[in-house]
Amino acid sequence: MSNDLKTIAVAPLKLAATGEPFSRRLIDQIDEPARPLGAKRAALQERRKRPAGKPHQPRNASDESGVLTLASRDETVAFTLRATAIGLVVERTQRQVVGTRLIQVIVFTDQPAFDRWCAYEPMRFEDALLYSHLRREGHAALNART
Amino acid sequence: MQRSTQERDRPKPVAQTCTLDDGMRALELLPCIGDADSTETAVTLFRETVICLGADAGVFMSHLRDDATRTSLRSLWACDPVWAAEYANRSFFENDPWLQYATHESEPILASALNPASTEHEVFQAAAASYGFASAVIAPAPSGVGTSRVGVLCLGSQQSGYFEDGAYATVRVLARALAMELHRWLQQSIRKDLLRRSHITDAEIGLLRHEAAGHSSKVIGASLKVEATTIDCRFQRLNAKLDAPDRRTALRVARLYGLL
Description:
- The structure holds two protein chains of two kinds.
- By secondary structure, chain A is of the alpha+beta class.
- Chain A contains four helices and five strands.
- In chain A, strand 2 (about 70) and strand 3 form a beta hairpin.
- Helices cover about 55% and strands about 15% of the residues of chain B.
- In chain B, helix 3 runs antiparallel to helix 7 (about 165-200) and helix 9 (about 215-225) packs across helix 10 (about 230-240).
- At the A-B interface, helix 1, strand 4, strand 5 and helix 2 of A face helix 3, strand 2, helix 4, helix 7 and helix 8 of B.
- Strand 5 (about 100-110) of chain A pairs parallel with strand 2 of chain B, so a sheet runs across the interface.
């Protein structure tokens, strides 16, 4: 399916009978902080986003383009590894149920820099299996380049 | 004094003062960054431009307020990778004075001109200084949606007072251009990413345009010759695709990510 979206023009509509404009729905101002959700809706949204409620997904997945994704057990942290001509590109995504989602893209051109970064990675203690997998795949990608 | 192992292992600065040739090279690279077709290309060009500007380190961040409960902070790191790890581990993103500056101002500024407003800011600046930002230029990248989407470029030097001693005048201009090009690339990147993830259709974009025009389900239904309840169902599917709790938020997400 193509994702090249066509522009669909929407003309302002008017009531045929009265000629009066329709009562307009409220629209959030885009340049202002987002509208807070009501208590009920916020609770529902939080429940939907809770990892336990999500269907099981494979923690490690690799696609045809050689991009490898590794995720922690609770899916709060994920790493996407891409081996490129210049080195290893790592995209680290840190999610919270509510709050900031931090996405960091870092390029490693040599193994010592990758190892130094790994030494500071909290997954070393929180998810040792993921951590060892990350190191192994990172080393493999960097060694394949050299 | 004996230097710690971490300090010895840290990469040495590779950049030199920004010469005319470096400035011209940076100008050549800038359009390529904005049009980069992949993340790795963008980061590689970013690293090269940082060196051309005479800096030792560079970080670009784009802060997006998706909805009331979520914000996204996307960042490209061309610096000591341990700084990226520390930034995440110590949750500096919750109270980053450079990002806060960019949220309210559009002019580039020397980091030394920012007075720390809290102890957290002092801690952040001390940590940044130890990872290649002893002297730093902060270049905001404002957007057309106000504080809902803000970018900030931080260029750093390990040499204290480097940018304060005259390099700033040239770097300020190029840093502003680099910040805007990186912001442009990131905007295109997140749009493509959302389209790929959500599988949103042209018809659904049409629904969002109706919502943006303030049309109710009845009005949209009359326009498309379907029942209002059908429109409600379509909006529910659309909200799920955009991970939005309601259609007003879905519209906000669509506008922030450049779908409309």
